[in-house]
Input
Amino acid sequence: MCGIIGYTGDAEATPILIAGLRALEYRGYDSAGIALAGGGRLRAIKSVGRIDALAEKAAGADAAGTCGIGHTRWATHGCPTEDNCHPHLSYGGRFAVVHNGIIENCDALRKLCESAGVTPRGDTDSELIAHLLELEYDGDPVAALRRVAARLRGSYALGVLCADFPREIYAAKMRSPLIIGLGDGAACLSSDGGAMPECVNRLAVLADGQEARLTPGGAEVYERGRPVAGEFVRCQSSRVAAGLSGYPHYMLKEMCEQPEAIARTVADECKSSRPALPRAGVTLIGCGSSYHAALACAPLVERVTGCRAEVRLASEYICSERVREHGRHCVLLSQSGETADTIAAAEEAERRGCRTLAIVNVHASTLTRVCDSFLCTRAGPEISVATTKGFTTQVGALARLAADSDPAFARELKSLPFAAEEALAAAEKTAEYAGRFARAKCAFFVGRKTDYGAALEGALKLKEITYVPALGIAAGELKHGSISLIEKGTPVVMICTDPALEDKAVLSAASVRSRGAFVLAVTTCARVAEACDGAVMLPRVHPLLSAAVSVIPLQRLAYETALLLGRDIDKPRNLAKSVTVE
Ligand code: AGP
Output
């Protein structure tokens, strides 16, 4: 949700921190700040709004120094104001803190601060950590951090400066990712490996319960107060701000990358290194688009396993009754691998006696460590908050698993990237219809079976980036209530990619058209296209794979509508790329 960056070395820290925050901005963008050490004191520069506003403010401020931390925020406790913006300075100014995560016992900690005579300036749980550090401090910042961390309940990734040690950064972590990067004469900290400064050539993931001290000469990692060896691996700079490559938005760039991303994901690598889909009951779990990918892939998984596949929202799974699930296999889908609900669902699945398999796009993410095994999609970094290639490569990854036990299906799978390419070209036609969606009170996305998952995803894309209300509905459910919302001109997208469901789609289209709806078909079937007011024709693929193709025009439709409405497409309001709080 939020992003952390830290740098200590020989170079000026501010430009490095600002560049890191730009790479992290997609994780949260309602306010941002940096803190710098030097001259026996800490200085914080903060700004509400985007990183550009912070950069402008820093340019006119005393922003010199070679050691600092930075943060980009997505508000959870308290509105986006400068008081609530990180880094937070402690009451005496000795500590500065950036924090990702949620502190569950913050009410008790606030009382603790107040009873010690400290009145917090803002409403955040994070600010309390800075005050507690100063209260606990006895000359050793790592020891103070350890004692404060022991009081925290919930999740945290912390970056800390102490005015007494102006070349050092301290870090601690619990259930929120934090990575240390080392370069020649520099040490860095980030919540996201992809945002590490370019000087970094070694990375280590901090583990839950560990603390670290970073100096320009390296990093010391501690566990229960004792030094332990950090597991550093060599890396190349993976700065995600690779740029837009000429595209006006990351969302469009990432949509266009889908054929290649799917091709990489379904490529025939070594089958023996892949986990197999068991011939047993499987529960597919995810949130948002990952949940939709799970829904779209359930029929595919059922065909392979021969058993009913259950699909659950991660947030519902964790609060469902704990019935016996021993012997079931849970597949947890998450682009980021950092979604708190999905991680909690993996832990809950384990408690219920299930085997767990993660399908993630980020190799070094928390979910890969929590699950028994994992499989990576090969989408590459996804910056746009609205996922596109994340969804289609999840479908590709599950299809790859299915193809391992089905040679005929494996042959079909080879055509998927080409079909995605054709769908991209066909999707341009959606620009003709965007005006109807921009003006709509509510839009409908309708489909059955695999197309139902795509319909939900199409509706989510429209809501996310255009703020136009949209409903994704199982076609058979329309007549059970939602059809009452259809009036003259209501746009309905009818998705039909399975010839076996063609007749039903024609009937559904007729039932809403007769009530005045404007129906746009996204289909492989000529008869469905003829039965609607407009159509985007899709290339034929195996119906169980079709969500990776049919969703592409839906993404483009949302994109074109958002363009017409002048929306902030890559950073829609109220959203964050990965939702690391439950
Ligand atoms: C999709 O466009 C959204 N940004 C959101 O629904 C997302 O899919 C959801 O938060 C799950 O994220 P994950 O795949 O990283 O777990």
The radius of gyration is 25 Å.
